[in-house]
Each structure stands twice: as C-alpha cells, then as structure tokens.
Fold this sequence. Notes:
By secondary structure, this protein is α+β, with helices and mostly antiparallel strands. The protein is about 20% helix and about 30% strand.
Amino acid sequence: xxxxxxxxxxxxxxxxxxxxxxxAPFKRPAELSxxxxxxxxxxxxxxxxxxxxxxxxxRSTMDGFAVRSSDTFGATEGLPAYLTIVAEILMGEKPEGVxxxxxxxxxxxxGMLLEGADAAxxxxxxxxxxxxxxxxxxxxxxxxxxxxxxxxxxxxxRVLKSGHxxxxxxxxxxxxxxxxxxxxxxxxxxxxxxxxxxxIAPDEPLQPGKVRDINSYTLAGLISGAGGIALKKGIFSDxxxxxxxxxxxxxxxxxxxxxxxxxxxxxxxxxAKVINDLGRPGVLFHGVSLKPGKPMIGGVIGTAPVxxxxxxxxxxxxxxxxxxxxxxxxxxxxxESQFDKKKRTIQARIARNISSSPGREEHIGVSLxxxxxxxxxxxxxxxxxxxxxLTRADGTAVIPMRKFGVQEGDIVEVTIF
Length: 417
C-alpha cells in the first residue's frame, strides 16, 4: 500500500512526523470561561494581564524591624547603631505615620512597611535594650529583606501567555492577583475504538482464543495524563462497515480518533481503507521504521487526526509518545516549548549489550537504578505483546535507527513514563 508520499517502503519516524504536522493545526475544541479552582492542567486561550500591582504594598520578608537603611550604615557588633522603637506593625493593617531618622518599627514577615522605611533588619541582627530602644548589629542596604510594591507583577503586565498549560503555582498567582475566572480551551476529546474479533471486555469470562482489552485502558490513562479526555467507544468486529460507522460517528464528538488493532497488513486490515474513504487527505503514512510500532497508521480526515495503532501494548505506548502526545498538545492549544520533551528524558548508561537492526528506531523498556552516582538503564527484554514488561519499566531507551546496537556502558536517552 502506498503512503501519502507515494512510497511502498517504511518511512522514518522523522518523516512520518513531518508529513503529519504538515496538516497542523488540527481540529481544536472550543474556548470557555472557567473558575480558577477548575483550571489545573487547562490551557489558556487568552493572555493574562495583571489587574493590579503584586504585591499591592511593600512588605517585609523577615521578622525584625522596619528601618531607614541609612540609619544602619557602618553598624557592627562592636559599634552598633541605636534606634528608637516608635511602633509595632500588626499583620493585615496599614501602619500610620512616617518613619523619621533614628526610628524603627517592629514588624513581622509579610507586614506592610510604613512610609519612610526602605529595608528590614532581621531580628537576629538586633539586640533590644529596653522597651524603647534597640541596637542594630549589622547594616542593611536599601530594599534588603523587603519585597517592593509591584516587584512580583506590575499592573497591566502580561503574567501568563496564551497557550500556557496551568500549573499549581500559576493558579496560585492568579488567585494572588484577584483573578477568579479565566478563558481556556476545552480539553480535546479523543475517541478510542478497539477492534478485533478476539478482544473481550475485562469483566467477561476468558474463553479459548480470546484476550481481554488492555489497550483502551492504557490509552485512556495516557490521554488523561496528556491533557485530553478519553471517550472509549467499545469493542468492534474487524468489518469495514462497522468500523467506518463508528469512526464516522466519533468524528462528530471528538477531535481525534484512535483505532487499536487492525493496523497489520492483511485481509482484516480495514483501518487504512476507512480513513481514506471518510475524507481527505486520508492516510499519510502506513508503516514506520520503528520497533515496536512498525504497522502504525497516521492520517487526517478533514482537520481531525486519526491513528491506527498496533495491537501489542508496548507498541501502543511507544506510538502514543511519539505521534499522539505531540498531536494532542497542538489540539489542546498548548504552546509547547523545545524543552518540553527534554523534561521527560534523561541520559543513562545501558546496563547490557543490545543488538539492533539498522534502519529502524528501536525503543526498549528499561528500569532505572543508581550505581556509583550514575543512572543506569537496565533493559527489560520481552516481546511487545507482554504488558507486564511495561509495568516493571520506568521508561524506554532509544536506539537510533542507524546504529547496530549499544554496548554496555554506552549513554542512551531514556523517555520517562
């Protein structure tokens, strides 16, 4: 079967990604306004501008005394500066008056500086002589131990950019600015279609020749972790009319469709035909120089990406990380940076010799351990149909397609699960 590029042979992972993303941006869900308490993991659809200065007032970062810094210059333990205590600044209150030369005010962490003060002396660097006077044993510079008004964010300053995926600290910043409702993209919905006459639901009694559905549950978790919403459509027979009907309906209520099983070349392979028949551009590639994951199908129907995944669980996991996760990031509206993949990868030494056939990119499940201060990747060798190999793995190590393998002690890149 020829792919979108008119070739019969397998294409590389890089070529497959290039032809796939040629059709990006893909179908994207609608925007909606939501309260920030529900916004964790959502992607902003509009820039966030600070409605006010943050903090709104200058405040101390230490327990101690608010001072005019010039009054402390030259102070030492042997020759301290003497200041008169004129006030105690209570938390949550605005202090009255103006601090004059030679005066100070007792202050707690987070307390508001009174007018005239430009620094705070740590309590540990003072010595109280009586109820009215202290010794300053160490000088402070202007602004020391103080957060100035607007130092965190200035009014109308852009705090968060459109396309940013919200983390707990981001939501905390929004709360600190008094922003309680924001505009985000809805999470993209991904339909999961399981195919195969041998597949049964997990709660059904196992009969000879039957296997329980593993992949739809694995994919649902991966989709959720990548910021999407999984819609499990069910298990269907490998018949053209049945698969076409469920894919067509899935395109109406989801932004992406995943079909597990039926991607191997054979008489029961209807996935590619369904994708081609339902709309253009259709199948972009069918078969990738990848192990596991060689039978992978990638296509686009209109603006919705549709993938035909191999049946083997390890291959499903690898193909999700390579093809589906980045496509889902585009659909979610996330402005992923060049460092996002780096956050999920580490360098490690491979713990044994592994041979590989040149011409394909190979992904091997590994567990990680520390030896003499270095991270080692221990290969978990097993066939791609074995799910328990994945449960013991911390990630996958990559053998590039032009290498014959790796030697024990070689550095490999590991993608963390």
